Amino acid sequence: MIKYIGSKRVLVPRIVAAIGELPAVRSVLDLFSGTSRVGHALKRTGYRVTANDHLAYAHVLARCYVQADARKVRGPAERLLAELSRLPGRPGYFTRTFCERSRFFHPRNGERIDALREAIAAKDLPPDLAAVVLTSLMEAADRVDSTTGLQMAYLKRWAPRALQDLALRMPDVLPGPGTAAQLDAVEAAACFPVDLAYLDPPYNQHSYLGNYHVWETLVRWDQPAMYGIACKRVDCRAYHSPFNSKRAIRGALRDVLAALRARWLVVSFNNEGFLDRAALEALLAEHGHVAVAEIDFKRYVGAQIGIYNPRGEKVGRVSHLRNKEYLYFVGPERAPLERACERAVAADGSAQLSLS
Questions:
Q1: In angstroms, rounded to a whole number, what is the distance separating the alpha carbons of residues 54 and 34?
Q2: What is the pLDDT of residues 307-317, one digit of tens each?
Q3: What is the pLDDT of residue 166?
């Protein structure tokens, strides 16, 4: 799956194991699905998953990893990916924008991305099959990008991976049913009654549209006007999420919680968010007992690299390389929450749990 700030790759086994301790959970709503890493793992475990995200690239990932049924799409997808892999490169908007005007990708790979994306657009594919193929292209591009994992900027010199040839691979599509939605969080919370809701909302000033604008453009294929060195979509300027606002996030989360139709809640947050642990526990306590797992965690890759100016010169020192990830478990019964919290922290001696 693509590199992603806030990715729960390391935490996924803990989350899945903890949810397994909550009784009578068969259906799960992943309300802010992002890469759908959590939803994918839950579907693999046997849950009926609904993955929701309002961004186009995230919706494509949710269609691929949660909604698409491998029994129906794997054969056609493999044949189509083999056909697309034989296409020569052809420069177009993507190459001009993200390889020449900016340097997110080597032009040789940009030309391949242009050719493959045009071919996909021309085929008018069924939505789930299109999502699988687009996910393959997005992930192939991610493997040869020249960034630190965010699309706010690119590296001054080509990353070694950027000089490799772009190669399509079949995504890990799972058999069975699932649902992908592209709704506002409050609307999705109200639309899907489930046994458990998993929430991993944006928690600071950084917009996912701004951080991953290249994927949004690759999926929409709308050739938007752009601005700045990073060639961001102009709609990044107009886009404002209340979850990216210190002033608005509390009310936005309260609205989502009020709209949810779920017996159990699992909320992922960390200590760098706009809401501190006490504030978030107070909000969640309005909906049941709360158990909290606190897990020591390595910060995202950009923090490991350091602080640089536009000329690529190191200009500052990162204040810290670790943070605290919190998993909040909420529900009507205390004992299952205790068991869930204990499972979440069991693999790490540095983790802590508390109950309220």
A1: 9
A2: 444 444 555 55
A3: 98
Q: Hey, how many other C-beta atoms are within 10 angstroms of the C-beta on 252?
A: 18
* Residue ranges per structural domain of the chain: 1-67+176-202+242-356, 70-173+208-240
CB of 137 closer than 8 Å to CB of 113 = yes
Q: Looking at this protein, which amino acid is placed at residue 322?
A: R
Other C-beta atoms closer than 10 Å to the C-beta of 237 total 11
CA distances from 258 to 187, 191, 251, 284 (A): 11, 13, 10, 10
pLDDT at 321 over 90: no
User: What phi and psi values does residue 110 have, to the nearest 5 degrees?
Assistant: -60, -40
Homologous superfamily of the 1-67+176-202+242-356 domain (CATH): Vaccinia Virus protein VP39 (3.40.50.150)
Lowest mean pLDDT across 46-55, 187-196, 230-239: 230-239
Q: What is the dihedral of CA 175, 52, 236, 140, to 10 degrees?
A: -10
Residues 6 or more apart from 15 whose CB is under 8 A from it? 8, 38, 41, 198, 266, 268, 327, 344
In a 3-state reduction of DSSP, which class is residue 260?
coil
Decide the pairing of beta strands 48-52 and 179-181: parallel
Say how far apart CA 249 and CA 201 lie, in whole Å: 10
Rounded to 10 deg, the angle between the 12-19 and 334-345 helix axes is 150
Q: pLDDT-derived band of residue 356, with 50, 70 and 90 as boundaries?
A: low
Max CA pair span of the chain? 60
Number of CB atoms found within 10 A of residue 179's CB: 17
Contact present, 136 and 168 (Cβ < 8 Å): yes
pLDDT at residue number 337: 97
DSSP-derived 3-state class of residue 279? helix
State pLDDT tens for residues 64-119.
999 999 999 999 999 999 999 999 999 999 999 999 999 999 999 999 999 999 99
Element (H, E) at 277: helix 277-285
Q: Do you know the residue count of the chain?
A: 356
